[in-house]
Write a structure and sequence with these properties.
This is Glycosyltransferase XRE-1. This protein is α/β, with parallel strands linked by helices and about 350 residues long. The strands form two sheets. Strands 3-2-1-4-8-6-9-7 form an eight-stranded mixed beta sheet, with helices on both faces. The C terminus is likely disordered.
Length: about 350
């Protein structure tokens, strides 16, 4: 009976403490905005409506801000293909939302062997258009050849920026849109690349959310260890009770989503955090312009094939890469223009 009372005297305060933490965490999660953008796999009707709205928005803003001044900090290159939908207008519309009249200079890098309607319209609107494969036919009947072309096109478009006066280059694919706070996020990223991450050659601004683990799990485990150790010191329960409480806290925090730490931290600091790069995905990559000549020269000769495309080549190279701990862009494409399947 004595042992039971002793156990209860330790357990009841601990249960109350951990219960209070669970409630507090749930309240913080409800208060914290979801910062990271999710993918938008729109059906064909939704996609057409979204793209039409984006096109009208872009044309309206383009009429107000037709001329973009050079920027010493950032230049933007968009890899474009003929998708038979106004994808490029959607990207430009979201960039205008983020930057307005201060939009950095934008270059449209067309990877088609021929010109097409949307790119011609944008050329008439005085956008800078470069056609890297003009009058150069290519064979994409085989998957390996399609992947090789996508990879080669990516390096060619990146190579256009090797002599840019801007210190950083943002290479975007044409089936994304950027976060409404994108400008401030990129400015905080630029600051980090100038200071604490001055050794980093590139940073990815997108990763599939459900696959993010490198940055979130250590933070969740660390917070749980800290809180459990503090309660153990304050309440002096038996170790087995601390272990049970730690596991309960870990499960509850993990159930809040692997992006909860990133959302909470950004809400407090308004700063983008760089973490180790996980292999995948190049819809938006932020390059240090000074590193681009070496990156292109080293990687353009690399063979690409299924399972070893441009993202793998970049991540496995000698160049230092990082990724943001939440998505600064959203992937809106239904299909790859070359692969004809889910991107």
């Amino acid at each position: 009976m004595f042992h039971l009372n002793l156990f209860a005297s330790h357990a009841i305060p601990l249960i109350f403490a951990y219960g209070s933490l669970v409630v507090l965490i749930s309240m913080i999660r409800a208060w914290t905005p979801h910062i990271s953008l999710e993918d938008h796999r729109l059906n064909s009707v939704q996609q057409e409506e979204f793209l039409n709205v984006s096109k009208l928005k872009h044309q309206s803003l383009q009429a107000k801000f037709p001329i973009r001044s050079p920027s010493r900090d950032l230049a933007i290159t968009i890899v474009t293909a003929n998708r038979a939908q106004p994808y490029i207008h959607a990207v430009l519309g979201s960039l205008f939302d983020a930057y307005g009249v201060d939009l950095p200079p934008v270059t449209l890098c067309s990877v088609e062997s021929h010109s097409y309607g949307e790119i011609e319209q944008l050329r008439r609107e005085r956008w800078s258009v470069v056609e890297i494969n003009k009058d150069y036919p290519f064979n994409t009947s085989v998957l390996s050849l399609r992947i090789a072309k996508e990879t080669g096109d990516y390096w060619k478009c990146l190579n256009l920026t090797r002599n840019s006066e801007a210190r950083y280059t943002l290479l975007l694919e044409d089936d994304i849109f950027v976060h409404e706070r994108f400008r401030g996020m990129v400015e905080s990223l630029t600051y980090q690349m100038d200071t604490t991450s001055s050794h980093v050659d590139y940073a990815k601004l997108y990763h599939i959310n459900r696959l993010r683990h490198i940055s979130s799990m250590p933070q969740i485990i660390g917070v749980c260890l800290l809180l459990s150790s503090l309660l153990h010191w304050l309440l002096a329960p038996r170790p087995v009770l601390t272990l049970i409480g730690y596991l309960v806290l870990l499960i509850h925090l993990n159930n809040q989503g692997n992006l909860f730490p990133a959302d909470f931290r950004y809400s407090l600091t308004d700063s983008v955090y760089l973490t180790m790069s996980e292999s995948c995905c190049t819809p938006a990559v932020f390059f240090r312009t000074a590193s681009i000549p070496a990156i292109v020269d080293a990687l353009i000769q690399e063979k690409s094939f299924a399972g070893h495309a441009k993202d793998h080549i970049l991540d496995e190279s000698r160049f230092v890469g990082r990724e943001t701990d939440f998505n600064l862009v959203s992937h809106i494409g239904l299909i790859s223009s070359l692969r004809r399947n889910q991107p």
